[in-house]
Write a structure and sequence with these properties.
Elements lengths: L11 H6 L9 H8 L3 H15 L3 E4 L4 E4 L12 H13 L7 H16 L23 H13 L1 E7 L8 E13 L2 E8 L8 E6 L3 E10 L26 E8 L2 H6 L8 E5 L4 E8 L2 H9 L5 E5 L1 H17 L1
Antiparallel strand pairs: 1-2, 3-4, 3-7, 4-5, 5-6, 8-10, 8-11, 9-10
Helix pairs in contact: 2-3, 4-5
């Protein structure tokens, strides 16, 4: 089977003209035929081998590449509409640009979109994400965590938390990777939590240091999904040990803000138009995130219940006042 039929399929017309002859193209010939650079062709050959399992060999006598075994390009099964949506996915992933997961996804999407002629489409720039802070994650850390996650291997590492900035040593059974706002978290069972009793915890990959892969494995619990630990709340990568029922009032322009999203699975919204107030009632086990959410609306939001949360909110306001 001809190797150049699947390299840069935009050039299929040119390639088909040579199909009737015995042809073993080298990288220079493929680059010329497809109007790309030699490094691009070399990368595509490697990509076909690694990603699609194509058995591409080099004939030293004929000085060219060939398929050692018949190969049907999976791209033939992908519609132009599918490719377009894949391109949009890449745009939506730009908040992770420069990170290991983005680099992997980007290379795959670029290969698919370029092959179908969408790589430089102006339309792709019509779907975008606004500029967001970028978090640098070490490739080695990412690869170690992913490998331990895949094979259910216990992982050891040093960690500096957001609140407890002192270095602590952790032994983790990794359950799940969480992505949020450009950040990577690993969720699992930390054997060192709660003074050695153990408990489920979240760790930011950018703060993990000195990782050590153990020779111990663990059995993944049937119910390991982080979302089931949030008490119905939808406030991101944070969890407490208990679910709390909240009641919060929103005023003025914050009334529309609270109506724009589903913040919890059981949320109830009640409008009091005469008082220019919208009340939301919901359950969540993410108290810190709920507090940050209320504070983000300034004077246009105030908690009503539970009393402990209201007092915590007031103490935060008082602390802010002292700074002024």
């Amino acid at each position: 089977m001809r190797i150049d039929n699947h390299l840069n399929p935009k050039g299929t017309t040119k390639n088909q003209a040579k199909k009737k002859t015995s042809f073993f193209p080298n990288t220079k010939q493929l680059a010329f035929d497809n109007e790309v650079s030699v490094p691009t062709i070399s990368r595509d050959i490697e990509f076909l081998r690694d990603r699609f399992g194509a058995q591409i060999e080099y004939d030293s006598i004929k000085r060219g590449y060939y398929y050692a075994k018949d190969f049907d390009m999976p791209l033939n099964l992908i519609s132009s509409k599918d490719v377009l949506f894949l391109s949009i996915v890449k745009q939506l992933m730009t908040q992770y640009e420069g990170s290991p997961i983005y680099n992997e996804i980007s290379s795959i999407v670029d290969f698919l979109t370029d092959s179908q002629g969408f790589g430089k489409s102006d339309f792709l720039r019509r779907v975008a994400t606004p500029p967001l802070p970028k978090v640098i994650v070490n490739d080695d850390v990412w690869n170690i965590v992913i490998n331990c996650l895949r094979d259910n291997i216990i992982l050891k590492f040093d960690y500096n938390g957001r609140w407890n900035t002192a270095t602590t040593h952790r032994t983790l059974r990794p359950y799940q990777i969480l992505l949020q706002d450009g950040l990577y978290f690993v969720f699992g069972f930390d054997e060192n939590a709660d003074n050695g009793k153990g408990g489920e915890s979240l760790f930011n990959l950018s703060r993990m240091k000195h990782l050590e892969v153990t020779n111990q494995t663990f059995e993944l619990p049937e119910n390991f999904d982080f979302s089931s630990r949030c008490g119905g709340g939808r406030f991101g990568a944070f969890k407490d040990n208990k679910t709390v029922h909240y009641e919060i009032d929103f005023y003025d322009d914050a009334r529309q803000f609270v109506k724009d999203c589903v913040w919890a699975d059981d949320q109830q919204l009640i409008d009091y138009d005469e008082e220019s107030t919208t009340t939301i009632k919901f359950s969540s086990s993410q108290s810190l995130k709920v507090l940050e959410w209320v504070l983000s609306q300034g004077a246009n939001a105030s908690p009503v219940a539970p009393a402990e949360f209201v007092e915590r909110w007031k103490n935060t306001i008082r602390a802010l006042a002292k700074v002024l």
